[in-house]
Amino acid sequence: GNVNGIDLDFFSNKNISIEEKTHLKLKLGISEIDFVFLFVGRLVTDKGVNELVEAFSKLNMQNSKLLLVGPLEPALDPLQSNTLNQIDNNSNIISVGFQKDVRVYFGISNCLVFPSYREGFPNVVIQAGAMELPSIVSNINGCNEIIIEGENGTIIPIKNNDAILKAMKKMIHDKDFHKKLAQNARPMIKSRYEQSVVWNALLEEYNHLISQLKK
């Protein structure tokens, strides 16, 4: 889980130039009119990647892309064979493996999709919000604390590709909804998870515990 907050100076769109975004889009074959769904994390069953890939495959929209950023772990929690086949053969699914710096990938995307089965407190959802991305997340601890339904993202049931598909369609087609979530994303992270906010909350808790011990 996250106990240190997030550095909003580091995770900021201001640090990603238009040239960097344009170069990466050209490299990955993403056009200016594509709506890009982003997943960041290990490509394993436990992260909901099977359901995500199946839902995106059913989306079947010409101007949409699914960008997968993270390593495959076939020895630990392997994906289904049909999922791997879709990743390899669907031209609208782009898998780039592990990336040390994910900020530019947030910068070229429109929405994070994170349908994990279980988490502690997922940094990637906080990072996406800091980078002004709305999120589609599963209804699990951590995710359902960071995301407030209809404010900075949407919350769906776990292990449900139909729910993922429905949420993705809404993000694409309901432009006012997507715009509202995107505008709220960074301010909501700033107000709750900026490092100074977290540090002050920890200090207050420590001082409270110390005062209790002195009684």
Briefly note the structural class of the backbone. alpha/beta
Shape: globular
**Helicity range:** 40-55%
Count of helices? 9
Strand order, main sheet: write it out.
3-2-1-4-5-6
H and E string: HEHEHEHEHEHEHHH
- First-residue to last-residue Cα separation: 32 Å
* SS strand fraction: 5-15%
* Record field, number of beta strands: 6
Would you summarize the structure shown here?
The protein is built from 9 helices and 6 strands, in the order αβαβαβαβαβαβααα.
Could you explain the architecture of this structure?
α2 (49-59) links the parallel β1 and β2 (64-69). The protein has a six-stranded parallel sheet with strand order 3-2-1-4-5-6, sandwiched between helices. With 215 residues, it is of the alpha/beta class. The protein is globular. α5 packs across α8 (175-193). The chain contains nine helices and six strands. The model has no long low-confidence stretch (mean pLDDT 92). It has helices at residues 18-28, 49-59, 81-89, 103-107, 123-130, 143-146, 161-173, 175-193, 195-214, and strands at 35-40, 64-69, 93-95, 111-114, 135-138, 153-156. The two termini are 32 Å apart.
